[in-house]
Structure formats: structure tokens, C-alpha cells
Amino acid sequence: MVTERYNYVYWTKFRKDTSPLLRRFLLVTSALFIFAAILHIIPFFTNQGEIDYIFLFVDLGISGILYLEYLLKNKVPLIVRVFSLIGTTIFISVLSFVRSGLLGTGEISLAFIIISFFVFLPPILSLVSSLLISILPGIFGVMVYFSWIQFPEFLGIRNNSPREWYFKSVSLIIFSILSGFLIQRLRAKLIKNIVFLKDSRRKILKNKKHIDKLAFYDSLTHLPNRYLFENIIKNKIELSKPETFLLLINIKGIKVINALHGISFGDQILGLIGSVLKQFNEERPDILVASLGGDEFILWIQNSSKTKIEDAIVRFDLNNNEILTPERLGHRLQYRVSGIQFANDTNNLDEMIRKLSIAMNVAREESLPKLVWFQPDMELKIEREQKLKIYLEKTINQKSFKIAYQEKVDISSGKTIGLEALARWNAPEFGNVPPDEFIPIITKSELIVPFGKCIFEKVISHIPKLLETYGKGIQVSINISPIFFLYPNFNEYIIHCLTEQKIDPKNIIFEITEDVFLDEIETIERIVSELRSKGISVSLDDFGKGYSSLHYMQKIQFDELKIDKSFLDDIASSDRNFLLLESICHLADSLGLKTIAEGIENEDQILRLKQTSCHVVQGYLYSRPEILFD
Fold it and tell me: pTM for this structure?
């Protein structure tokens, strides 16, 4: 049963595949019969011989039948079409035998149709049809034997011999069986090979589609990847107009989501973001969205303007999606966008993506999410940063930073009671580089810990000389980066260095800003407590600049409070600001903290400060940072 089912399947597939060939065969055969009909009327033009009107009309009729078969296609059942062809063949053969006996036309017609049956018809039907046609000579032999048919003498004696007719009948039957067996065996093999090849081709195409999907699409978002994106817009770039833009979108917060809920959940979020961005492809044919991998996406936008794009970015909010709500994720999704315009900036895709990445670095530094367009000076800034980074690495390794010291003065006595150590750097090729430029580069380059160690070790090496100059009671303030402050075994490192250099911990004050508290406040509380237990003072720097300092002061015991310069600039002219300063001083007094006013630049500020309990100041009015050694 299984073999029969497969044979039927093979035959069905074969018939489907050979149907166009059969139709072309019918069309060609119809044309040949028309040609044969034309040959019958040649005597009319040559005046030689007689026109055989019987075969003329027969050929025309057969040609019409075959052409009709060609037109009907599969509209007529197969059995009807087969028997119509058999009847046509028998009619031709009978007419040939009646007119010509065994002179070949009938034999050729029968042999031709037998082979055609075995090629184009199902196995059993082709064999039965061929056997029916093959007994046709036998029927004529019987008719000759009983003298029901007499052939003219010029056709030959064998046409009136029943033995010849029997021989011809048996020969055709044997020919039918052998031909059928051979053709069907070959056809079976051919069909199996064809089916196997077609199945293989189907599997190859299926695998190719899968491979193409892996090669050209991002597996998480199902968006085109960078390779496909480049291929799609390769031709568009050359024809791009000034109204064409390229945007780079960077999703923030994915790492936090991975940490809170696992990588699989983060991947799911990226997939949902991809589906949100994919809507732009469906709604706007002039927008193409692709994934650059991870949390970055790229958009090709045509027929737009900077104003329209900026408005769309402002309105676009991933958190409006019911699945991506902050309540569900435990974190609000944010994104940064950089953009570049074709023709105006460049028309090379690699160059544009490079410039987009430069603009993205600027976008990441922005406090609010907005679209940052590429500007030429950004590239110069990046090049400068890269060179500075290389020089910074060398400077840190060689410990060749300079340390400038700014005095802290008691305005009541005019004495210097402390110093703040400030890093200064003279870079090759660039000269003096301000701290507000090289410190962010150090932080982004993950050099902050070795930089912090370099500065700390250099400062404590200066302390003996500072004590000789300013007195044994002097305290030196050192700014500590949040990253360095939370570095593993920070306290052990500090105590080890002080012990090794024989420095009294009471001569050290660490200044930390409130951004150090963005991590676990319990850890900060433990570190500060351990430092103070060893005699090291801790100062809360830039008080008033942030928004959570009071909360941290409630949890952690500090020794000193440094009031930010922005709080002190207008105390001489603004009673409101002065009242705020008084309140801060009262708060510090109640907590047992010493207050330091930084950024003092004029006498009017001093007069106001003398009305408060804050008598220690630091600023240009008294001293500027000065490099005392090296």
C-alpha cells in the first residue's frame, strides 16, 4: 500500500510537471497534421497525381481535435481525453489499413501512439490502451481471412495474407509490453529522481531562507541587520536628496533590566522595542528601520525635515506601550538619538554611521533626552579626547601629574588652617588642560582608580613638607571619585599607604560628592565609619548642588560640610540666598559639622559670612591653587 501511495504521488507530481510538455506536444502534433494536409493538395498545384480528399479532411479533422485538446487543458476528465485520442488513432489506422494495407502508415501511427500513451498516461491505463490498439492488426487479419477485405494487387500479396496480419498483431503486442515495461521503469526512476531533486531543492530553499534570515535579520527584533540595511540603501545613497536623514537610537536602561529581571527578559524588551519601531516600516514606506545589534537601532528617513523629525522624537515615548510601562519593568526606558543629514554632511554610509556615533557620545552626555545633530566640531572634540586619553594613560603610569594646593582660611584670624589638593596636568601638544576636561575623560576611560591612587600617593608624599610650611595641625583635603571610593578594599589601601609613609590620618580629609551615594547607602555608611574610626575626616562636598544631601546627612556622620559656590555667589545682594546660607550653617552646627564656604571672590561675601557661624573660606580672594612642589 505504501509503494502504491508513493507511486501515485510520484505519478501525480510527474503529470503536473509534464503537463506543459504534453500541451506543447499536442500543439506541435496539430501543426504537423496541418502540414500533412497541405502535402495532400500539392497535386493541385503541380498537376501531377490525384488529390486524396479523404486523408486531406482526415488530417484537418485530427489537427482540429488535437488543437481542441490543447485548448481544453484539464477541463475535460482524463478518461474522456484518453479515449478521444484512442478513437482518433484507431480511425487513422483503420483508414490507413483500408487504403494501404500493411504499407507502414498504420504501423507508424500505432507505434507512435503506443509510445505516447506510455509516456503521458498512468501505468495501467497506458498498458490497457496500448493492448487495445495492438489487436487492431489482428482484427484486420480476421477480416482478410474471411475475405471481408480485399486489397488491390498492386499493394502486395502480404496485405491479403492472414498470417502476416497475425504476425503484425503479435509483434505489436510484444512491442507494447516491452516498450511499456521499459518506459515505465525508466519513468519510475526518473519520477523518483525528479521528486527527490524537487524535495531537495525545497529543503535547500527552506534552509536558504533560514540562513538568509540569520544572515540578514536580527534574531531578537526581527529587523534588518546592518548588512541588509547597507545593501538596501546602497543604491538609494547615490540618489539621496537633502531631505534624507539617518538617525541612531540608543536605548538606555537595558543593562539595569537585565540585572533586575534576567537577560531573557531584557531580550524580550528589545524584541518589543523592535516591533514598535517596525511599525514605521509598515506605515511609512520612506522610512527604513534596522538593528545594529544590542540596544542600538538605525533609521533611514526620506522626504522629511529636521523640524518634523525633532517633533516626532519629542512625541515618541516607548513607555506609553502597555507592556513597556515603568511599573512593569521596574525601570523607565530612556533613549538617546543622534542624527545626520545626507548631502550636507556626507554621502558615504560608513562615514555617516561613524559621525552618528560621535554625535551619540554627545547625546549621552545630555541630561535630557533629545535629538543631537552631528556638528563638525564634535569630530574635533572626539579626536582631541582620544589623543588626551593616550597622554593620560602615559601620565598616570609615569605619575607625572602636578598637584596644586589652595588654602582654606579662617576669616576671623586670617590663618591658613587647611589646604585642598587639586590635580593639574600639562599635556604634550595641548599644554595645560583644565580638570573639568580631563577628569571626565579619565572617568569614561575607566582610568579613575589608577588616577585616584596616583593623586593620593603623590599628595601624601607632599604632606611632610606641607606640615613644615603650614604647621603640624594643617589638614589636606583630597577629592575622591565615587568610583574610587567604592573600589574594593579602598579603606585597606588608604591605611596601608598612610602607614607606609608614616602619615598621621588626622592630617587627611576626604571630600566626596553626593553622587557617590547612588549605590547602596549602607556600603557608604560602613566605609565612612571605618575611615573616621582611623582618624581620617570626611567632608560632604558641593552641598546644595544636588537634591538628596539632607537624606545622606541623616544617615552618615560627616566631619565637614562644604557649601557649593552657586549658593554663595549672590549672598551679598540677595537676602533670600543669605537666609538660606544661615539655615545651612545652623543645620551644620546642630549636627556638629564644620562648614566651609568655597568660591569666595569678593569682600562683600566675607562681610556676609562673618554674620554667620561659617568662618572658614576658600577662594580666589585669599589664594589661587598653586603648585608648590615638582
Answer: 0.58
